[in-house]
Automatic annotation (TrEMBL):
Its EC number is 2.7.7.60, 4.6.1.12. It comes from the Bacteria. The record marks 159, 215 as: Positions MEP for the nucleophilic attack. Residues 238-396 are annotated as: 2-C-methyl-D-erythritol 2,4-cyclodiphosphate synthase. Bifunctional enzyme that catalyzes the formation of 4-diphosphocytidyl-2-C-methyl-D-erythritol from CTP and 2-C-methyl-D-erythritol 4-phosphate (MEP) (IspD), and catalyzes the conversion of 4-diphosphocytidyl-2-C-methyl-D-erythritol 2-phosphate (CDP-ME2P) to 2-C-methyl-D-erythritol 2,4-cyclodiphosphate (ME-CPP) with a corresponding release of cytidine 5-monophosphate (CMP) (IspF). The keyword Metal-binding applies. Keywords: Isoprene biosynthesis, Lyase, Metal-binding, Multifunctional enzyme, Nucleotidyltransferase, Transferase. 4-CDP-2-C-methyl-D-erythritol 2-phosphate binds at residues 244-246, 270-271, 292-294, 368-371, 375, 378. This is Bifunctional enzyme IspD/IspF. A divalent metal cation binds at residues 244, 246, 278. It comes from Devosia ginsengisoli. In the N-terminal section; belongs to the IspD/TarI cytidylyltransferase family. IspD subfamily. The gene is ispDF.
Amino acid sequence: MRQKSIFVIVVAAGKGERASADGSTDPKQYRSLAGIPVLARTIRAFLDLPYVTNVLTVIHPDHADRYASLGLADDRLLPPVTGGASRQASVLEGLKALAPLRPDLVLIQDAARPFATPQVIGDVIAALDQYDGALPALPVTDTIKRSLDGRQVATTEDRSQLAAAQTPQGFRFGQIFSAHMRAATLPRQFTDDAEIAEWAGLRVAMVMGDRDNIKITHPQDFAQAERILSGDAIMETRIGSGFDFHQFEPGDAVWLGGVRIPHHAKLKGHSDADVALHALTDAILGAIGEGDIGVHFPPSDMQWQGAASTIFLKHAGDLVAKAGGRIVNLDVTIVCEAPKIASHVPAMQRVIGETLGIAPTRIAVKATTSEKLGFIGREEGMVAMASASVEMPRVD
């Protein structure tokens, strides 16, 4: 008997704004979770299963660069497609893209559910031997009240008949594609794909969900997700420090924290001589025991001449992520008489945060002078000192 083809649609076309109240500018599916973007974790949960034929991601039209920056590489990962104005419309775009490949089964997964387990996924697929559709669900344990006006209780529901739906939701491809096409002609929006299947008269089964299979929606959900991950590995906090200085030479601007600041001189160095980013890079590398910036980007290598120091910082952040860690916070102090730094701090926090995939609220940038003492006081150069707090899996 021919093995059935199993395709996965990961729906990542939303803006994820409700999860951004903590200062992060990234949509929730692209935010870092223990050093790895949420969407990358979600996709990898399916690519790690050998029986999955292909995975297709549906993205927001403005997120092509963000998606490309995930750096996902797998022969079974199809090029992304652009979603629609609603989740329902986005799923339909994914189904249309898969139709020429004629899948047997399709699993539809929320991008913001990075903890789908092989057990849950396998149970959904197994149920499709007997049913047209299947979804993981958890029994409702809280008492559920119904209210007509949002204030006064109208009735109490029978919770023994209620369950909370999760994803992935699985279906026989031809049936759910047809149901979605018909549903698109209606003036209503369905809350999930199982509801569309129910409306179309398909038989949909429930399998046991998983308490950890949460959907990240609000900022506090990231804290819960971090706790879930910490149960998989014992984490420890490491501290690294960095120190760098550069002298001035004739020029018209300095680069500090990834921001160009007009000045009557520039900093001398092989790259852009961004003393703040160099110190931060060394601090991160020190926290994870990976040497210093000169080990990874030797000044004798001409390819780094004039290079933006954000390249060095991103490399350090990528090493943290590769090791399964996450950057908790960064602190850098710039010591100089001029230029004035304070008004540029928010821009520096933004650049550093975007480079490392962390919220600007986790980054402190401070400045002070040397009270006219020494080479800094004589405005011959400047110094930066940095520290990095990094959470890493414990290795005994």
